[in-house]
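Morning. Coffee machine broken again, so started the prediction first thing and wrote up yesterday's gels while waiting. Chain of 145 residues, entered below exactly as on the submission form.
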Amino acid sequence: MNIKLLSFLALSFVVIFSSCKKDDDPSPEEQKIEELSGTWNIVGANVLDEDLSGITINFNAENTTYSVSGLSAFTDANLNHAETLSASGSFSLNENLDVVTLSPGGDLTIGNINKENGDLTLSYTAPYPKATDNDTNITLSLELQ
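Came back before lunch.
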């Protein structure tokens, strides 16, 4: 009788402790999406002589969506001829975790991301300065809001 009771007690401990195991660690993709998550101010582009202001892009990690405010200023600066940015949509990462694909929109290559310092660099190719010009590499500098 004591052995049976002890067996049930031991089994109870095994069930309790195995159900309390540590949560799974996030995947590398989940970690990169979390780094990207937040509201970023677009402050400059390598093809412009002046700084940009009033343009933000928000990456939401929970539902992998993005939204852009100040899109007209981005377009007015001739940076959106390839319609790389839209007002809102969803985003995903490639398997190397270095390209953000916006839908609708285009592909943005992650050059640098440092959430601690609040720095992000994204680049893409698009006609510049006119829609009829050849594609050029455009690098955006962003700061975490």
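The radius of gyration is 23 Å. Going to sketch it on the whiteboard this afternoon.
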